[in-house]
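Please review the protein record below. Tell me whether the encoded fold seems credible here:
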Amino acid sequence: MPRVTVHLLRHGEVFNPDGVLYGRLPEFHLSDRGRAMADMVAGHFKALADGGAAPVHLVASPLIRAQETAQPTASALGLEIVTDPRIIEAENHFEGMKVSKAELFKPTHWRYFINPLRPSWGEPYVTQAERMLQAARDARRRAWELGGEGAQAIMVSHQLPIWSARRSAEGRRLWHDPRNRECTLASLTSLTFDGDDVVGVNYSEPAAALLPGAATTPGA
């Protein structure tokens, strides 16, 4: 079967001076650092293109931070951004709040902690993984149509959906400690497909130089 790589790109840093968990809220744009991260990722993909391995298909979440992260790569590679709602951020009860111990201990939230393995405070991990991997398989098929064997696609999404998709692809349990996610801002989780099967996972940080000092809001 033909092998195709789909890069799951997390968006860059967001301007969020209040430190809220912004989730699916609109109008959370990239910060200056986030735009620089997006430019660095675009440079990374342009270098791949110059080496003969140009991505041929670009997909992004409908949220503005994902669209803004995708734009420099679209310009560098001459690609259209295809918007796919399946790769949007996960739903979360705490969206719009500044999450702290004081906030979490309020009785009004207690019922959302009944099942942390699901999790009960938001969209189930399994649902996130399924929609992400379905979108990735569709991106793989489109990349194959456009570029054939060895083609590449890019999907710009969000930390938790990317991490859920990776853990599912690797056959690992989906519940986890959020502090241990390997999915930094503007990072790439690259899935190698043989047909519709994921046969390899690679992780890289093309904007690593900009990570020191970047925002670390949980779930962002």
